[in-house]
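If you are new to this repository, start here. Below is one unmodified record pulled from the training split, so you can see the exact layout before writing a loader.
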Amino acid sequence: MNPEQAKARIAEIQSAMERPDFWNDSAAAQRMIKEMKDLEMLAEGGSRYDRGSAVLSLLAGAGGDDAEDFAAILFRMYDGYATKKGWEVRRIDENESDHGGYRSITFEIKGKGAYGRLKHEAGVHRLVRISPFNANSKRQTSFALLEVLPELPEGEGVELKPEDLDIQFARSGGAGGQNVNKRETAVRIVHKPTNLSVHASTERSQAANRERALALLKAKIFKREEEIREKEVKGLSIGATTANEWGSQIRSYVLHPYKLVKDHRTDAESHNTDAVLSGDLDMFIDASVKSELK
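And here is the target side for that same chain:
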């Protein structure tokens, strides 16, 4: 259900509430009121934050050095897309490998409408190519997971209780785990009720990284609650589907034996792999937006 459909259903429920017999069936009335509240959240969450900035996190999956290199390739792709849009990219946390890849990297893309566009990129991405790390020139399949969060306005989002947080401090590290900062400025926060965790390490002070991590955690919890609400509205159990299953990729980037980038949700595809990996993503995002509005 897209935001416009949610708004239409809200109008139906409001019309029903105006009828004098609405409360004759108290249980049904309560269910409709709960549905309306969920739909209001869905309608607001699906459009309000679309106009703002986004926070992206890439996590290397199966594939070792190749997967870490793929995460770096995807980072450069989104950095290129942001540049084309006139948006600003700012790194929040990075865990770099010895080969210049990323085990994980979190970065903010600041710009009008960034979240509304980039939220369609969330999911598992798959790369097929001749491995530059394999002496036998074998074909390698690698995976990377992209999470996209909205930037919540200050003061919005869930209230974080101190007793629910496990806050840890560490030295900010460089490639291969080399410490580049002797002070413990990097921050890791775990939200105990949900077991969600966030990292922030690129700010110069511990306090700044802590503030950044708390904002990121709020967005992560908000996104999780939004996904739960959407599934409930659609009548799905919470465990029925998950966007983060490594087994169901949203897009494949094939560089050998032929060149093709294909989105498995919309069937949009391009043979110009160099252009796509440089940031030409609008055809894929436009197809996802069109599919969502159906």
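Two things worth knowing about this chain: Helices lie at 3-17, 26-45, 65-85, 114-118, 206-233, 273-277, 282-292. Confidence is low (pLDDT under 50) at residues 175-182, 237-244.
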